[in-house]
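Need residues for this backbone.
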């Protein structure tokens, strides 16, 4: 069995925050974000979204033992621990990016996405079929993870249904204002088991008005 800790963070600025941070705010934000992924047992995979995802990924990679998968000026990025093998990586223009991780018998695909329109959702689903269809010319992945921002809670439910994935955020029962009507989550294959029954949401950066969505972290186990 293999265990993975996965966190997803969207660096889109909070609507109450000015587009330009005052001196010291960026450093403070990145220090908090770094502390999230460098907990007692650091995260194996970190999914990033937002206009500055590439640059944030560079900064976080420097603070930890990570490889960065992204493109300059991209709105998504994926960090993987250096001891975690990555077979291939892909970009879905305007939607996000994907890394393919080999297992003993098959492959695991992990996507970082930001879906703000129906067209982007459809583009993700079309690309996803390339990795889940046995007859596809692409690499077939038996296990899948999709983390990031969805257009709405309804859209999130639709994507989970069409990809046959589990919305882990549904396990969270909270009256926290920062989580009300939130469409930010990590979806996982039904063959993957959550080690901690309830995913962890970090509310600090949202309470401080740095970003819009609370980062989500999960620990999963699957047959390697």
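Answer:
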């Amino acid at each position: 069995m293999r265990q993975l800790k996965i966190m997803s963070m969207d660096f889109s600025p909070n609507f109450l925050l000015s587009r330009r941070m005052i001196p010291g705010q960026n450093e403070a934000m990145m220090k908090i974000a770094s502390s999230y992924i460098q907990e007692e047992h650091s995260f194996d995979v970190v999914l990033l979204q937002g206009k500055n995802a590439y640059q944030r990924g560079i900064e976080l990679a420097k603070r930890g033992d990570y490889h960065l998968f992204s493109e300059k000026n991209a709105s998504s990025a994926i960090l993987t621990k250096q001891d975690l093998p990555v077979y291939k990586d892909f970009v879905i223009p305007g939607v996000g990016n994907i890394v393919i991780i080999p297992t003993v018998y098959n492959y695991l695909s992990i996507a970082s996405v930001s879906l703000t329109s129906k067209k982007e959702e459809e583009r993700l689903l079309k690309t996803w079929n390339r990795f889940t269809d046995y007859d596809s010319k692409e690499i077939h992945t038996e296990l899948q993870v999709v983390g990031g921002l969805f257009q709405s809670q309804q859209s999130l439910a639709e994507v989970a249904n069409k990809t046959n994935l589990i919305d882990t955020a549904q396990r969270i029962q909270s009256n926290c204002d920062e989580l009300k009507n939130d469409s930010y989550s990590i979806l996982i294959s039904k063959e993957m088991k959550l080690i901690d029954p309830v995913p962890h949401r970090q509310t600090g950066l949202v309470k401080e008005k740095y970003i819009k969505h609370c980062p989500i972290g999960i620990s999963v186990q699957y047959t390697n």
